[in-house]
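Incident review: delayed structure delivery

Summary: a single-chain prediction request sat in the queue longer than the usual turnaround. Root cause was a stuck worker, restarted by the on-call engineer. No data loss occurred. The affected request and its eventual output are reproduced below so the record is complete for anyone auditing the incident later.

Affected input:
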Amino acid sequence: MRFVKMQGAGNDYIYVDCTEEMIENPQEVARRVSAGHFGVGSDGLILVCPSEIADFKMRMFNPDGSESQMCGNGIRCLAKFVYDRGMTKKEVLRIETPAGVMKLDLSVENGRVKKVRVNMGRPKLERRQIPMKGPAGRVINEPLTVGDEVFHITALSMGNPHVVIFVDDVEKAPVLTAGPSIERHPAFPERTNVHFVQVITRREARQRTWERGTGETLACGTGASASLVAGCLNEKLDAEAVIAVSGGRLELAWSDDDNVYMTGPAVTVFEGEWFDREE
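Output delivered after worker restart:
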């Protein structure tokens, strides 16, 4: 299996061109290639597939084999993958995902993609849309009991479920302890991504992420989008802000058309060949 490893703000994925080769069991392949010591090491596997309704289709699998609806950093790198490899010369792309068709604007320098702006879509704010159990309505600064602790959460969907918790010091946030417990809290039937966010100014925040099916990651594009929306809903952030993740900086805007737009880097790390056999 030929692959390319790419990263966006430190969120790294293994990409396979499925217009050229077939992956019969992507769940198992994702588990094997994502492993740090026995595989390539990544935050997951992304398949670049043909689409009947868009330019390409993206399927993304977490290291535990579960399939995710959407990945903001992953889709930016997918745009670089198809453009830099000559699979398209369009500088505006439409990519099919389980969360819908996403529009991407490519910034090209010397024939290579450097940055990508993604229309991440409209946030889904009603509890049933996240999905989250409980009474109808929005989940804004709502208490959630986790063991002996109570966290005030804002929850929403950006094509996948997110919980945002505002903290005074993100470096001291209980990402590794509370993150997995909130991910699998009974209130979230599809589990959830968890983000601890420290507001620096109204136009900048720092985020740490416990990603559903992965663990702590250096970045999460849908999570940064969710953090901006949560910041606006709690009157902590302006509609345009920079979200500093552990792997870099992402530019976010919640536009008047209700869509969230994200701009960030896309980088090719290396190419290789995976031999899926025991030796």
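Verification: DSSP finds four helices and 18 strands in the chain.
Action items: add queue-age alerting; document worker restart procedure.
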